[in-house]
Please model this.
Amino acid sequence: MNQTVLLAERNKVLTITINRPERRNALDTAAYTALTQAFESATGRNDLHAIILQGAQQYFTAGNDLRDFQSKPEGESPGLRFLKALVNTDIPVIAAVEGAAIGIGVTMLMHCDFIIAASDTSFRIPFVPLGLCPEGASSVLLAQYVGIRKANEWLYLGQPFTAQEAFESKFINKIVPPGQALDKASKMANTMATQSLLSLKTTKSLLKRTLTPLIYETLDCEREAFIKCLISDEAQAAFQQFFTKPEKLKS
Model:
């Protein structure tokens, strides 16, 4: 497994850690590939009851590494393959979020079963400011989580929002003090480790029964729209502006 993603198993729980702290855990092709392999390998096993997803050094992820957005992807992008692997996961996934979740760092959370976030976490979905459009089935799922008015606000404006706002909007399950997201997620996962695996998998399958076909349809629609936006002059200009900003302004 590529060291951009770290795996640890204990007590029927798999912890997956995005490990690019020097890039605020931004996701490049290697990271996406490693994440896809991790989730695909975990699916179908009879000795895992839950998965915890986190970022290294108490920072979830800055989203897609924009250096990978300089050319049109051929076929499915690594990010889309990862999202499909996450959608297909057959056991509960608990996200332990610290620091910030940006872009796909937010949209991937919509495919997790539980989200535990530190109180000082910042969330942002900056697709429109970057000349892009929703991805990760967020054009459908976000409104189901938080309502269409709040979804419009977060998607159209692309401004940061706090953990408290995310909690009040019912986007996340719990807020914990900074540094304690993993501990809370571990306690939840350890509870699941004592429960029937058949019951856990069956419950997840039933909860997703009607959503999964819609998610796949939406992922395909968004992919075509995203590529058109990606290769537009507006998006490329936004990326160039991002790369020329001082590093301290990119967070």
